[in-house]
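Hello,

I think I submitted the adenosine-5'-triphosphate job twice by accident. Can you confirm which output corresponds to this input? Input:
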Amino acid sequence: MSARSVRVFYSEVEAIKGIDLDIMENEVIAFIGPSGCGKSTFLRTLNRMNDTIEDCRVEGTVTLDGQDIYDPSLDVVMLRAQVGMVFQKPNPFPKSIYDNVAYGPKLHGLARGRGDLDEIVENSLRRAGLWDEVKDRLDKPGTGLSGGQQQRLCIARAIAVSPEVILMDEPCSALDPIATAKIEELIDELSSQYSIAIVTHSMQQAARVSDRTAYFHLGELIEVNNTEKVFTQPDHHLTEAYITGRFG
Amino acid sequence: MSARSVRVFYSEVEAIKGIDLDIMENEVIAFIGPSGCGKSTFLRTLNRMNDTIEDCRVEGTVTLDGQDIYDPSLDVVMLRAQVGMVFQKPNPFPKSIYDNVAYGPKLHGLARGRGDLDEIVENSLRRAGLWDEVKDRLDKPGTGLSGGQQQRLCIARAIAVSPEVILMDEPCSALDPIATAKIEELIDELSSQYSIAIVTHSMQQAARVSDRTAYFHLGELIEVNNTEKVFTQPDHHLTEAYITGRFG
Amino acid sequence: APAMARDTIQIAGSSTVLPFASIVAEEFGNAFSQFNTPVVGSGGSSGGLRQFCQGVGANTIDIANASRAIRDGEVESCASAGVKQILEVQFGYDGIVFASRADKGAFKLEPKHVFAAAAAQVERDGKLVANPYTRWSQVDSSLPNQEIILVIPASNHGTREVFEERVLTPGCQAFDSIKKLDKDAQGKACLDLRQDGRIIEIAGDYTETLARLQAQADAVGVFGLSFYEQNRDRLQVATMNGVTPSLETIGSGEYPVSRPLFFYVKGEHIGVIPGLAQYVEYFLNEQVSGFGSPLEEAGLIPLNDEEREQALAAFKARKAVK
Amino acid sequence: MSNETLSHRSIIQARVAKSLRKRHARERRFRVFGLAAVLAGLAFVALLFISILVRGLPAFWQATITAEVYFDPTLIQLEPRPVPREGETPQAFSEREIAWQSQLTMVNWNRILENSIIALKPELANSRRDVRALFTSSERFHLRDLVGNDPSLIGQRVTLDLVADANVDVWVRGNIDRSLPDSQQQLRPAVRALADELRAEGVLNIKFSKALFTNPDSRSSPASAGLAGAFMGSLFMMLIVIFLAVPVGVASAIYLEEFAPRNKITDLVEVNINNLAAVPSIVFGLLGAAIFINWFRLPLSAPLVGGLVLSLMTLPTVIIATRASLKAVPPSIRHAALALGASRVQAVFHHVLPLAIPGVLTGAIIGVAQALGETAPLLLIGMNAFVANIPTTPFDQSTALPVQIFLWQGNELRNFFEARTSAAIIVLLTMMISLNALAIWLRKKFERRW
Amino acid sequence: MNNLTLIAGLLMLMAVAYQIGLMRSRAVARTDSERMHSRPVYYGWLVALWCGVPALFVFGLWSLLEPAVIRSIVIGALPAELADMPAQQVSVLMNRLGHIASGFGVAGEVAPWEAAAAEQLTRLQAISQLAKIALMASLAMAGVLMARRHIRPSLRARNHVEKVIAALLAICAGVAVLTTVGIVFSMFGEAMHFFSFVSPMEFFFGTTWNPRFSTTGAGGQGEFGLLPLLWGTLMVSIIALLVAVPIGLMTAIYMAEYAPSWLRSVAKPVIEVLAGIPTIVYGVFALMVVGPFFASVGDMLGIQIRATSALTAGFVMGVMIIPFVSSLSDDIITQVPQSLRDGSLGLGATRSETIRQVVLPAALPGIVGAFLLAASRAIGETMIVVLAAGNSPVLHANPLEAVSTVTVTIVNQLTGDTDFASPQSLVAFALGLTLFVITLALNVVALYIVRKYREQYD
Ligand SMILES: Nc1ncnc2c1ncn2[C@@H]1O[C@H](COP(=O)(O)OP(=O)(O)OP(=O)(O)O)[C@@H](O)[C@H]1O
Ligand SMILES: Nc1ncnc2c1ncn2[C@@H]1O[C@H](COP(=O)(O)OP(=O)(O)OP(=O)(O)O)[C@@H](O)[C@H]1O
Ligand SMILES: [Mg+2]
Ligand SMILES: [Mg+2]
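Support: Only one job matched these inputs. Its output is below.
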């Protein structure tokens, strides 16, 4: 999917100041940058989650498979089924683990009958690396899992509707190091089938998981390049200052 | 001030598992470590802010100038006047800037008369590097300042009661890079008169501002040493793993 | 000093007496500028006497209005609280009338009609059977061909007792098969009302009865005479045994359904609460509660002169209830 | 990407697309239901207000006879008002004063009233009874009080607005079916004719009447019955609630929210307070009758007792509202104060409470409004009394506005009192809405976001 | 000197004591090298408290004990032949003596021994009053002097004062508890009295409510079956909830999730006006407008609808509790974390799907709690039912007919014309107690549910 001169305004404040960026198929792209630079905002423009914020306005075009996602004729429901999202704080629904995963497929009528649904649920949980841990308690509430498991459940929930792109906003910031490692592993595996955009405040994490890295600064995209390149020889002095810890 | 085999329990969970640590005069000590490792908890034991948490229990001794601060005969009010604290999110009182700074001195009867108080306020604001920015609007609400200014106001408020030690819990995490730089500068200046303990999640920041650095891991103090030493040749492999970004 | 001296006469009790007592109180206050206007509380005869018998003192009432005579148990409980001098004053009668909507048929009732319409069991061919009547014309052909719906006061009202004693009981005595029963069974047969929704008991005031009649055109309701008189544009009154209820017919006893109205004065408070004796004497003045008085205009059936003299004399002699 | 996943995705997209129409329709339906519910709520408010206004507004205007009254010295034979003599005991003076007052009362004021009409229509000289029926009976005391306050009126002619009798009012306004036969009318034919005549001549008018606002209740003269007594009673009770329930409630809330340890006992207190908020108000009436009247022997029918009962009833409302607004003060403020060396009490009273004040005020106002409108408990503590005086202290007997409404709606003079009741409701609602508006305004004004 | 002036005097003394403390602490601060522990105001307060609190305590204790002591002295001094009067008569006699002493009226002649006893009573009261004042005054003085002597830098005046403040706050919190105790206490005795006439079995399980007017004569006291009243209460409440819950809940949802802010800022206060309207107004509205309207609708449809019926009362009551339901639900719905909504929307759910399948289930316990609270409101409501339900305590299932409820019956039985010591009016207290227990149960359940729900997000 690709964004062209995207600007985002909160009321009159310009939070994103014209960004062009492409997300390739089956790549992991990391967004880094100091706090408040607009990483989350940009991520949310990609599946129109910004719609839920009252006074948020988007300019420019974002296309998915050549289709402008801000086209009024486009159905946002459809879009969000194609571009999934995982949030900073794990937010499983207060329902059973099974229902959490089955929620999306049921909503969109993806399953033909119960058996089909079971299969989707099992598949998604397997791919999220959670199946073995929860297969005996699918009917227990999803909120009863540990933080890391909850986050993987959310990922399973997202992939159950077979999206093309998965957006992740600091998915590990609420997790301990071990759970973080698991998620990172998972991202690695998923990258063979999905495009993944991940916001992180940890440069180390960006370095570990991503193919490309984009550096944001005060609503502008300063630099986007292969991760290795960004971390070793950044083009822009701001990027370098950030990487080397001169601020942030 | 010094802590000896300090343990902290939340209900029955042991969050701090026996820590010995000294804070020298006029030094800046940084506490780093992965999320949930107990940095904030330990910091709060140093001025008994833990008292406000219902089921928090502290074992071991913490002394300030040789006096056990957990001695029942000690008045916690006195202690907190001596050990100030600055929080993660700037929390000015919704009063005028003047009143924010004057509150502590008034409370403790530090000023003899209005002129005296004015002087204390001006001095504190000057030391916090805020005087020039606010001197014309001392009667405006403190909440009307920008985030970075607010945080400096909180620091001014803390130093207005002339504490010996200032505790700071991630004081910059809610601020933008420029404001952060200002605060760091300020910490540097203050370190000539106060002992400062600062919790930070940014290793770069620790490296920039502190004389010594303490690395916490799951409630234990793994290593404490000169900052340069910790960041270049850590003693412990956990510290090294954290520093080099293998987790966190 | 008396704990919180009080200089306003405090009255409470029956809501039937309330309008009369209120008018007297207001006139009393206007006529005697040295006394405050008495305060007339409601709360029913029961509530009034309950407060009355709470004891002697500034925080207890001075006069209890009642639409029935005080009972022995109440006198006892009064005495045990220190209220020993209970002065009973009967000051008139309350007429109880049956009325239907002005735009419906006129009723010429007899007690036995009412009984037959209301009872759970009625006599049919000399036997007691469950009440089969659904229209008044079935009870008696002289009555209008209207559905039977009788709106009567609920058992928390004193009026209910009058209704039972003066209408139902005489009404059921007209039937031989009931007369034959023993006393207990007779009482039961007389007072048991049908439960099929044709009898509507009103626990509130007459306004509610009137509202009932407005909602159900066929209904016949029980009202106080004064209420009826104020609402003549909406109601027409039924005769009883051929007698039209009016001040004259009730006062003379010709119209059978009426009850005496009382108030009880706390002897202990006379001379302490300013104006108490004067109020009672004013009340019993012909100008106030006699014929042609404001109370009569408000619907009270006055005592005749002789009775009123007696009542006044009894009060002046401080003759207490034993 | 393999072809397999591609085709898999397109299948899924097709299925999603297929489900969309139904889902969007459902969405729209849901939204319409929501809007309908909101509109229904608004409609109820509108309906209630319109119906009450339509019924009640006319009662602010009353049939009034404007006539020239001649304070005829031959009828008013009055000694000069006594003045204290030297060396006279106060008691002796008050006796003379009372004697003078009685003399004043004994004057045949009705005759003076009648004369004011007869002066216009001499032909009525022989039907004084009909003329008298035009005026509500308390007008004679109106004249008496005028002369009592200013004896120099004697011998003068003054044009006065005199309140007509309730039945006259009903008749001229057509609130009774004018075609009914005599037997069903409240007024005699002669009086009806006279009223119509005076109306046509402009003597009898429908005028805005202050009586409703300045007079206490009246039974003997319904047309002059007013709300002043009930209003004062309500006012006293509100003051008591404000001075009792609000401070005690706020103090309790502060204790429970800021100081009380969290244990079984405070849990119990919490359950208890929430329960009290839902206890039927009538139960508080039983409580008031048993405790305040029988136990503490407080006076009957007094706003004092009513105020106490209502205070107890409002207490939980105030506590709950205060606790909510204390909770809304972010802990960071408390921490800031504590970290500067403020004690808990200081932190609360210097920072938390001032910040919670708007919420506290809102809660207090809502509580007071609730108390103002409460009826049921007052019925059980003797406040449903007929009181013809306007109370001047909380110890004087009185009624309250809602009780007055209750009493009036049960008055047998239906044709007259239906409108009067609605008018009283309008007065009560006006007070209530002002209070609520004040609460909303306060909330808006001090609304703070952290 | 009466008690009010006594207290006022004490307050004035306290004000003086405050000044003394203030001045003393300033003086100490000047002479002593050590820093004072607290600010001067706290020393002032401390002295004032020492001045006032012990004296107040004595005052309270004295007022509590005085009557009993005086009484026993007076009784002890009565002529010997009166010594063995039954307790009942003694209290009547004491009342009488009190009235003689105070000059309040008494019936009959005053016997010489009565006059003597009354005089003794007066004397004793005067002595007691003087003693009380003297004791309080000396305690106050002593308190001031002692507290003043103790003022030194190490005295933690602030801590002491704050303890007193906290205690004061706790006492205020106790008022609410006392209220509950008072409620139970005020009804329990009379209710027990009632149960001595009517067995609890008959009361709680009886299906007929038909108390007779008199306690004697045929049919006895009548039947006191609670069930018809309870059923009426239930029916009215259910109708009310059927009106209020859908409208209230949908209003809350629309306001919280859909409404533009201008609509919210207009509609919310307007709907909340419904909550502020006195119930008597609703009652009159029901009686004059809604009832006749339903009756005429019934006429049009050819069914019997009573003007005053369960339907009328329930409907109007439902309107009354709409804002109650809507604002509680609104709070609960907005409390559902945004993250859950985001999660659902992010999966491609429509808004209504999110609301119905995620938000509502998550908020459900809280909403149920709100409903239960609304239900207890409905159950306890009196005036609407008094005016609009028609008062017919008969067991039937037709909501178009009149019913009676517990609250109305309390009013009717207490304000009726029946004998006040008879079960007919005592039943009101049993009903009151029952009602209290029912709402208590509802509330406990509601609170339990609401609490349990809260823990989910914390
Ligand atoms: N709902 C909103 N309304 C108004 N301004 C907003 C809103 N959300 C974010 N902003 C502003 O937009 C800018 C970008 O915010 P954004 O959350 O995208 O930053 P971020 O890079 O994700 O920061 P972080 O690392 O702290 O998550 C910030 O200045 C922020 O204050
Ligand atoms: N109030 C509390 N009650 C119970 N447990 C708590 C409480 N506060 C913290 N904890 C637990 O104590 C442990 C240490 O928490 P603490 O907040 O000190 O960590 P931290 O190092 O400051 O983490 P972070 O970098 O996220 O601020 C964590 O496991 C946390 O869950
Ligand atoms: Mg972000
Ligand atoms: Mg922390």
